[in-house]
């Protein structure tokens, strides 16, 4: 169902141990953990039409520039209160003039982080989506 809705597309065939079939079907790779950016995309797409994808001119996160393939998805989950990021000033994450937080797009998402993101994306108890 998720693939049918365009939420999860898979990985292109042709990689090591992933030969292409006659249809060039992608591979799902169920053993892979998603990155924070990948899961933000999955979550944002799963919430359409209840959420609108956003694409602000000024990025919220110091490490997710406009034009990044995950930019609008990360900004969307932030806009809807699902993520806040990590404070600047840590090792390798200097503060810029706006003291913007870091998202750490490539970090693998843990199961507790996934559950928290899903929980924060749902409507309050007793309410339904419009």
Please provide a written account of the structure.
The chain has three helices and no strands. It is an all-alpha fold and 130 residues long.
**Overall shape:** globular
Oligomer: single chain
User: Kindly state the mean pLDDT as a whole number?
Assistant: 89
> Helical stretch count?
3
> Which structural class do the helices and strands define?
mainly alpha
Defining traits:
single chain, 130 residues, 3 helices, mainly alpha, 25% helix
Task: State the gist of this model.
This protein is 25% helix and 0% strand.
Secondary structure elements and pairings:
Elements: H1 36-47, H2 71-79, H3 111-121
């Amino acid at each position: 169902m998720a693939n049918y809705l365009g939420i999860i597309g898979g990985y292109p065939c042709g990689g090591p141990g992933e030969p292409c079939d006659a249809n060039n079907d992608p591979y799902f790779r169920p053993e892979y953990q998603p990155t924070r950016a990948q899961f933000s995309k999955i979550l944002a797409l799963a919430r359409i039409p209840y959420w609108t994808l956003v694409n602000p001119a000024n990025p919220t996160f110091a490490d997710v520039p406009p034009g990044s393939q995950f930019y609008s998805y990360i900004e969307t989950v932030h806009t809807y209160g699902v993520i806040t990021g990590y404070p600047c000033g840590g090792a390798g994450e200097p503060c810029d003039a706006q003291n913007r937080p870091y998202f750490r797009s490539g970090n693998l998402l843990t199961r507790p982080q996934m559950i928290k993101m899903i929980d924060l994306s749902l409507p309050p108890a007793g309410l339904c989506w419009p």
